[in-house]
Amino acid sequence: MLDNGFKNDVLNTISKRFISIASLAIILISAAFSSPQKADAQLGDVYQDIIMATKDGGQGLQGEYKLRFASISNVEKEERDGGQGKGTISFSGNTVNVSVLGIESDGDLISGNFTGTFAASSNGYTMTMGSGPSENYFLNLSQDGEFLMITRGEMEGSDSMHDQLVCVRNNPQRLFTDQDISGTWRFRNFNLYDIENNFDREAEICYGNLVAGSGQGTLQITCIEWDLNSESGTIPVSYTLQGNGETAFYFPGEQTPFFKGQLSSDGRYMITSSEESDTQQISVAMKKDPSKIHSTAGLTGTYRFQVLRVKNFSSSSPRAYSGYGTINFDGAGNWTGSSPYFFS
């Protein structure tokens, strides 16, 4: 179902929240806010978003991409659940093949291979997996062809489902080295914890920089939690990078990575996710070009965005939203936008 009245609230956050532009091919936005605020100074409804946008004009969707996904279902019910994982998605002609491996919030494994079709549309691309209406996905490709985002938000009977996939182009012939990951990365994280817990669920959005090199790095991070309190810090991390572009990041003294990910074939984008059952996470990072200076005048044209949002996630009546739309920038600090939204 569509909640068109909800779109203005989301679009209004775009201009006043945490926008990161490391590449004009894609934009990352995160937001956490209360609307409206109650008269007694207590929080009103609390929303937490991750919004990703690609500049319009991405064409020629073919080849193989590595993906990371987060999935949440029935957030408004007691039997809510989630899942996350990784995989590969390949496009050939008008056929799409998907292979995924992950874990559900109850600890069950997710594994499967799926086939469907895709086609260009006025909103980018659409993809159909299976024959049911709940298997329709919306795709947007960056102009450089390196980053692909995929969303689904549907009702099937009384069940709600929200999927967000982030994908980077894969080049099996490419051998990655530490030079590819060294530098500064700007990132956005969307994290849900203990989704099946009726009392201690938490959500947070995080943003910041990852500075990496020679297997070591620092995470300069700010996280905004369900109560809109924020925590900031600089955390030392270590990492590994395999020749195929797979990454893993570790906190000091830990043997288990706090997230794993994948570099794009050109080394400009990195996608990561958790591989723990109690955490649904989706994260995108863009490598900063130290020679690039961004300006208001440089931000022009149409961008197509996708959003994953939770409302009052830690309360007794949580909701989830996912959707897609367009943002138009005029290069003078002004923008217009439109978006349909699916809701739980």
Low-confidence stretches: 1-22, 37-41
Q: What percent of residues are in strands? A: over 45%
Distance between the termini: 8 Å
Care to count the β-strands?
Answer: 23
Q: Please work out how many helical segments DSSP would assign.
A: 2
Mean pLDDT: 86
Biggest β-sheet, characterized?
8 strands, antiparallel, barrel
Shape: globular
- Give the strand line-up of the largest sheet: 4-5-6-7-8-9-10-11
Radius of gyration: 19 Å
> Domains counted in the coordinates: how many?
1
SS-derived structural category: mainly beta
Helix content: under 10%
N-to-C order of helices and strands? HEEEEEEEEEEEHEEEEEEEEEEEE
How would you sum up this structure, described in words?
The chain is mainly β and 344 residues long. The chain has one domain. Helix content is 3%, strand content 59%. It contains two helices and 23 strands. The chain has helices at residues 7-14, 178-181; strands at 18-23, 26-34, 46-55, 63-73, 81-92, 95-104, 109-121, 124-129, 136-141, 147-156, 159-169, 183-193, 202-213, 216-225, 230-241, 246-250, 259-263, 269-273, 279-287, 300-311, 319-330, 335-338, 341-343. The chain has an eight-stranded antiparallel beta barrel with strand order 4-5-6-7-8-9-10-11. Strand 21 (319-330) and strand 22 (335-338) form a beta hairpin. The chain is globular and about 50 Å long. The termini are close together. Residues 1-22 and 37-41 have low confidence and may be disordered.
